[in-house]
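Hi P.,

Sorry for the delay on this. The queue was packed all week, but I finally got your sequence through. Input first:
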Amino acid sequence: MAYTRGTSNNIIVGAAAFFVADTVLTPATLETPVSSASMKTTLAADADYTNVGYTMNGLELQFQPDFGEVSVDQVLDVAKLYKQGMQVNLNTTFAEATLENLLFALASSDSNLSEADGVGVGANSKELNLSAGDLGECPVERGLVAVGPGTGDCAVGSELERVYVAYRALSIENVTVSAKRDEATMFEVSFRLLPNDNASYGKIVDRSLSA
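Then the structure:
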């Protein structure tokens, strides 16, 4: 094969659309894509997924393997490494400071978000109960799907999109809610991804859209 400097079509630039599922996902319950439509369009039409809207700083997947070491007398460096742990995080920033997005960022139960019914509250009002929870309460896990640009060019029939799927995600980091004169209110959120019973965190799919 002749030498080439590289393939510019394999360079990916662009943000992803971010969707949160009502519950955890499995390969069987993940929405089936339509061959001629973007996965964004398919998920937006499904009531089981919520589009968080604008995000900042893109999407970042962090894979953090943990290796143990075996040392022996005859070698100054370690003689063997073995994998003893794994952690995967997905980070983004919700730029739309809605109560729904704050609910996701706090890993709070859907029951904590309701129509406001207090005295002096107008129509179409909502309230988010900042519950401390109870002993033994199960953390709220949700599925995540992000759809962004993939490799390939923009010609009809050859464009690709990259779909990121996390079956089980739980927000575990600190979340700050602010109201500042010179800064927009945003929610920085870090999701800890957990493997399903088949030891799978999810998948990344490069899919081609048919003409």
